[in-house]
Every structure is written in structure tokens, then in C-alpha cells.
Design brief:
This protein has about 180 residues and is α+β, with helices and mostly antiparallel strands. Helices cover about 35% and strands about 15% of the residues. Helix 3 packs across helix 5.
Length: about 180
């Protein structure tokens, strides 16, 4: 190999190595190394990949529903969002992921919306997130044949940690199915 090829490889290696170091340092959550952000605030050249920040997920959310029957009794709660078991072909094609994502984002949207101090339940019912969940629940889930109204519940659990009790985060009003 001639001298110019060796120099070119060293220059390219130095640039890529510098880029790697700048990217690694920019992931610091405490921003002790702000240099890269000073020259690239948009993150176009030096990416900012903090997948679990600023607050990592601490709970699993569960979407459940029940139906009200003509005698005013209600059915047992049933979970809507059991996530499909992943298989290797999902690396290439997983069309159901979009529906899971829409429902999951709607759940998170309602939780965020309901945490705002000045929000009333009537306001939340007009949100896109609420209407998306209600529409999905009404038309995509199988209901009791005699059901006249339906209701959904958003709960949080600690996932695999069974020592923490699940907590109710949001309970919808009852809505007619017809």
C-alpha cells in the first residue's frame, strides 16, 4: 500500500473515531460534556440517543374494558392490549405493531391529559386519545351480546414486580354501544 492510501485511511479512521467519541460523550444525561451540542444543537451530525430519558418507564400500562348489561350488572374486566408475542419475522414485517402503537400512545395521552390539574373528565372525553380508545373499544373488541354500554379503565402495574399492587389511573364513563 502506498503512503497516500495509508494517510487517507488514517484520516477517515480519525474522523470516524472522533465522531464516535463525540456521539458517546453527548449521551451524558448530566451534560458534563456539552461541546458537541454547542456546535450541533439540532443533533443532525452528532445524534442524541437517550432512549430511556429523561424518565425511564417505571410501569406497564393496561387497558381494560367491561360491559353493562340490561339488568345494570357489569361483566368482568377484560384486558384489551395484550401485546403479541414477538417472532423472528417481526424484524421484517409486523403490521399489527401500528395498532398496538396507536392504542399505547392513546393510553399515554389520556394519562398525561388527566394529570393536568385544571382538566375535567368532560374535557378529557373530547381528546383525540380518548375518542381513539373509545372508537377502538366500541367497534373492534367483542362485547357481550346483550351489552348496552361499555366502559374502559387504564391501570398501571410494576410489570414483573408482583410486590407492588396495580393502581387505577383513569376510569371512563359508560358509553352506549349502539
Amino acid at each position: 500500500m502506498n503512503g497516500s492510501g495509508r494517510v487517507a485511511r488514517m484520516v477517515v479512521g480519525g474522523l470516524l473515531g472522533s465522531w464516535f467519541v463525540a456521539t458517546a460523550l453527548s449521551q451524558d444525561p448530566f451534560r458534563k460534556f456539552p461541546g458537541a451540542r454547542r456546535y450541533d444543537p439540532s443533533g443532525a451530525v452528532v445524534p442524541d440517543w437517550r432512549f430511556f430519558a429523561p424518565r425511564p418507564g417505571m410501569h406497564d400500562y393496561h387497558l381494560l374494558f367491561r360491559d353493562e348489561l340490561p339488568d345494570d350488572s357489569v361483566t368482568e374486566w377484560r384486558e384489551i392490549l395484550p401485546v403479541e408475542q414477538r417472532v423472528p419475522r417481526h424484524f421484517v414485517w409486523y403490521a399489527n405493531r401500528r395498532a398496538e402503537k396507536v392504542l399505547g400512545d392513546s393510553v399515554v395521552g389520556i394519562i398525561g391529559f388527566s394529570k393536568e390539574a385544571d382538566r375535567k373528565k368532560e374535557d378529557i372525553q373530547l381528546s383525540i386519545s380518548y375518542l381513539t380508545l373509545l372508537n377502538y373499544l366500541t367497534y373492534q373488541e367483542k362485547h357481550d351480546p346483550d351489552a348496552k354500554r361499555t366502559q374502559f379503565l387504564i391501570a398501571a402495574s410494576a410489570g414483573y414486580d408482583e410486590t407492588e399492587e396495580p393502581m387505577m389511573l383513569f376510569l371512563s364513563n359508560l358509553h352506549p354501544l349502539s
